[in-house]
Amino acid sequence: MLNCHSLLQIQFQTLPVVELQADHMQYLSVAVSPDGAAVFGGCDGRVRMWRPGSDPVDLGTHSAPVSAIAVLPELGAVLTASWDKTLRLWDARSPGSGATVALPQ
């Protein structure tokens, strides 16, 4: 579970860090977009997006922990990498949709 009691400096903005008290997931990675949306990658492979003022939304899942996240605001997309040796490009506007690229062994 993410428990932070500090502030993040993001592109010259000061935004409060997300604290998801009701969520008992363990997060391995996080990325924040310029508009303040935060994307979390769970140890259970789940990718969740949280926008201030709304509930978290599941974008989809990997079959292993999420090791890295990049927010691509110009594409309206999120790129994730996982220990399952895949890269996934998620459409941030349409949860569950996206493309998968298998990485070489």
Can you characterise this structure?
The protein has strands spanning 7-10, 13-16, 27-32, 38-42, 46-50, 57-61, 66-72, 77-82, 86-91, 98-102. With 105 residues, the chain is mostly beta strands. 0% of the residues lie in helices and 50% in strands. Strand 1 (7-10) and strand 2 (13-16) form a beta hairpin. The strands form three sheets. The chain has a four-stranded antiparallel beta sheet with strand order 3-4-5-6, with no helix packed on it. A four-stranded antiparallel beta sheet has the order 7-8-9-10, with no helix packed on it. It contains no helices and ten strands.
Brief synopsis:
The chain has strands at residues 7-10, 13-16, 27-32, 38-42, 46-50, 57-61, 66-72, 77-82, 86-91, 98-102.
Q: What percentage of residues falls in helices of 4 or more residues?
A: under 10%
Strand residue content: over 45%
Main sheet characteristics? 4 strands, antiparallel
One letter per element, helices H and strands E, the order comes to EEEEEEEEEE
